[in-house]
Amino acid sequence: MTPSVRLQEMIRVIRSARTQGEERGIIQRECADIRSQFRQGDNGERSHSLAKLLYVHMLGYPAHFGQMECVRLIASPRYSEKRIGYLGAMMLLDEKQDASLLITNSIKNDLSHSSQYVQSLALCTLACMGSAEMCRDLAPEIERLLRASHSYIKKKATLCAVHIIRKVPELAELFTPSARTLLSEKNHGVLHGAVVLITELCERNPDTLVQFRKAVPELVQIMKGLVTSSYSPEHNVAGISDPFLQVRILRLLRILGHNNDTASDAMNDLLAQVATNTDSSKTAGSAVLYETVLTIMDINSESGLRVLAVNILGRFLLNNDRNIRYISMTSLQKIVQTDHNAVQRHRGTIVDCLKDQDTSVKRRALELSLALVSAVNIRSMMKELLIFLSVCPPELRSQTASGIFNAAERYHQSFVLHIYLLDILGTILTNISAGGDVRDETVPNLIQLITTASELHCYTVHKLYRALIKDIAQQSLVQVACWCIGEYGDLLLKGECEEIEPVQVTEDDILDALETVLQSHMSSPATRGFALTATMKLSTRITDNVDRIRSIVSIYGSCIDLELQQRAVEYNALFKKYDHMRYRSEMQKHCCVYVHVVPTVSVYEKNGLSLKIQCDKQTETEVTVTLIASNSTQNDITNFTLQAAVPKVCTHSVFKLGSVFAHTNSRYSFQQPY
């Protein structure tokens, strides 16, 4: 490639390179030639050399050595060189480069140039890479150009003002008066820039927001003119008159009408007109309608208008474009809590979106479906969600299962519905794969759900016991089943259940099932912990296999899993030190407390206060216990309170307790029934 090659020829040669190494060789030779051209000074080829360097930069190769050449070309009096210089500055310079400060004076001079095209180059460059220092220096020039006679310059000056406000927010007040006057322009480009500028001003200053609320009628008239205007080839996009300007105006109206009744009332009719007259068959129309919906939902709009907005989103759900379906469900998700009934009308369409091929659409449909679950539709919605659970992608399975659990926890009040929901939850735990498909809170949430329905304990423990002996691979199901067996194993032994056909289960059957879980290689440490704790709980609910339970627990006292080992050691300590406190079978039969102690047992002794329990009388149906409290200090004890907790098995018995308080000096003593 010769040194005099032009840009087009260089592009052709680079594209014809067969390997990356060959391309790098071409780039290196050309960059060497470009450096040589830069060193030769003003030979008429500098702009062509910089243009080639910019293409090299676009390919990802270093081009920083062309920064100073950009500065030189910007200062050139020739327009052709200025154009390439400003283009190079926008591509090779940024506000962090020291070289960017060198073009500040050139930009200031060009902003006052007699040619609007030179002014345009300076405006575009400042709006693209102007630093805070440059913006402060040139802001008065930009404010002056907002009042220029050429619409071409006004349009670019407004966008440059937006950049300045973003870089230096304290300069916003400088542009506020001019921004209002720009709304009277007829040129769509100027109007578009003016609306963007006003939006920026209103978002940054509440006082400016109040000031521009007075311009709502003017914005409404501009918008009405766009909606009702005849066909204009210059601004028409797919049958919609300048949808870009319409969208910008709607966004500004949304800001001005937020939490303001007066501004909202002024735009209600316009929004209704746009919502009913805009064609949604093309993307441009859908964009305008979407912004209209967002505006309706964000201002203090009328209830009928909000229903209309929800219906528009419902129509979007039927659109073939999945991007439109996605943004529709995203918007419905935001308003489902405030306009629940209106969104419920589109429940069927939302549920159908669960079958979409796109995972992101499925995720939005799932979130919205879970939000629509209520006490009225929980049966039908649970059915649909269970179907989705069986076919959903792995990445959505955990979210689906947890959502179903949370819904079941909210709507389990009725007896029949509670049974139905427990069956659903059991089905979920049985069918989903083990591992990460169930969130951490799922098991405790289901346990809480079971605990709150005391009338279903028998049904639940029978149901889960059957699932446990059938399959122990599903860890979450096994954990819940073990907990239920430990809590309600006595109900399982009775073999009486009205809601389900009972199964005769022996104590050995229950312990065999728990031992299988403990010994299975599929059981996680957490699952073994559930099983070991359930086994220990059963020692108070069965009569003939306490020694077997003691043997099972003692085995795990030397387990390599520290959590399991600690539990086993603590349970063994209960067997050795506190076995006298264990309830006997007679207690379970007669629902009374049997306390097997020496006549008097010390239960508390601290800070001079001593508490002793004395068993005075015991029959088959009653036990009399006396609590003796003694004060060995020299001071009186005040606010002494005694509370007695009665076990569940004694809920139908009469439990009497007496207390005696005596001071060591025998100044007083009293006995009080409790």
Automatic annotation (TrEMBL):
GO cellular component: AP-1 adaptor complex
GO biological process: intracellular protein transport; vesicle-mediated transport
Membrane topology term: Peripheral membrane protein
Domain GAE: 596-674
Localization per Swiss-Prot or TrEMBL: Cytoplasmic vesicle membrane; Endomembrane system; Golgi apparatus
UniProt keyword list: Cytoplasmic vesicle, Golgi apparatus, Membrane, Protein transport, Transport
One of the Pfam families matching this protein, by short name: Adaptin_N
UniProt xrefs under PANTHER family: ADAPTIN, ALPHA/GAMMA/EPSILON
Family, per entry: Belongs to the adaptor complexes large subunit family.
Protein name: AP-1 complex subunit gamma
Organism of derivation: Cyprinus carpio carpio
